[in-house]
């Protein structure tokens, strides 16, 4: 009798398991059918966004800039259409600018000119030209380097000499090559770097070393130092780096009281007050 009851219990358990498996199969089948139905409805009846050929739209935009109206090219790039095409040819032939499979010379130059003409951010240009910020940065720098390569050939300084009125002042500084000083330029930096760039007046700036010849032409500039750095700290760095500031033997530059006297540099006498009003004009 006990054996029969055990067999009946096992039979009922097997039946329940079989029924549970069938239910799972039915539920999974219904879910799969519903998912397929929803996907079919979505693909056939949803409101589709119009497809865009971004590359074609960008080419059309560029073509309108440098092949359209003259005023549009001047407004966007600050140069005429003729000058734009000539610049593209010069940068390609002499500047080493190379077109790629996806980027033309015209696009390179157009992006570069628009950034410097309107002081635009990379992300703004990237949206207009359907390019990533990294791509825009790379394109800008490639054109910048190409411009630097042709600069010596196409950018010429006009001959300049010191006027007679100014020459009378410089006659007291025999062998003097010019003057140098640091100047603070306001900058925007991250919150973590602000203490380094805060100068003694409390402003956030970068301290730039500038060296001028007697004709007031800049002959050396060293940017990049934080505003908290003193002038006396920046000058030694300029003398040591690879593209260093060189002072000819037995020559010197005039410096202010923020520097010390030494070979190549002449500072004012300590404790002596100098008034610019005494040396203004043609005295």
UniProtKB/TrEMBL annotation:
InterPro entries: DUF8040, HARBI1-like, HARBI1_dom
Chief place of localization: nucleus
Required co-factors: a divalent metal cation
GO molecular function: hydrolase activity; metal ion binding; nuclease activity
Annotated localization: Nucleus
Domain DDE Tnp4: 180-271
Organism: Prunus armeniaca
Domain DUF8040: 59-148
An annotated GO cellular component: nucleus
Protein's name according to its UniProt entry: Uncharacterized protein
The entry's keywords: Hydrolase, Membrane, Metal-binding, Nuclease, Nucleus, Transmembrane, Transmembrane helix
Higher taxonomy: Eukaryota, Viridiplantae, Streptophyta, Embryophyta, Tracheophyta
Transmembrane segments: 25-42
Family statement drawn from the similarity comment of this UniProt entry: Belongs to the HARBI1 family.
């Amino acid at each position: 009798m006990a054996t029969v009851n055990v067999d009946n219990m096992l039979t009922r358990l097997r039946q329940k398991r079989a029924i549970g498996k069938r239910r799972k199969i039915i539920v999974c089948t219904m879910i799969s059918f519903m998912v397929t139905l929803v996907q079919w409805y979505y693909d056939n009846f949803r409101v589709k966004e119009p497809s865009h050929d971004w590359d074609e739209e960008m080419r059309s935009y560029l073509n309108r800039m440098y092949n359209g109206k003259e005023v549009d090219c001047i407004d966007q790039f600050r140069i005429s259409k003729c000058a734009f095409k000539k610049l593209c040819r010069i940068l390609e032939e002499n500047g080493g600018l190379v077109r790629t499979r996806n980027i033309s010379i015209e696009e390179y130059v157009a992006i570069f000119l628009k950034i410097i003409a309107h002081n635009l951010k990379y992300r703004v240009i990237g949206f207009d030209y359907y390019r990533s910020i990294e791509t825009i940065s790379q394109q800008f720098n490639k054109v910048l380097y190409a411009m630097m390569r042709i600069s010596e050939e196409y950018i010429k300084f006009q001959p300049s000499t010191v006027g007679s009125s100014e020459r009378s002042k410089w006659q007291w500084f025999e062998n003097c090559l010019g003057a140098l000083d640091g100047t603070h330029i306001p900058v925007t930096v991250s919150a973590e770097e602000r203490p380094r760039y805060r100068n003694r007046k409390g402003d956030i700036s970068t301290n730039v070393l500038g060296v001028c010849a007697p004709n007031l032409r800049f002959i050396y500039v060293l940017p990049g130092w934080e505003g908290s750095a003193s002038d006396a700290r920046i000058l030694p760095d300029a003398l040591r780096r690879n593209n260093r500031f060189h002072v000819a033997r037995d020559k010197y530059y005039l410096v202010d009281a923020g520097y010390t006297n030494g070979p190549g540099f002449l500072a004012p006498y300590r404790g002596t007050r100098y008034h610019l009003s005494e040396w203004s004009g043609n005295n």
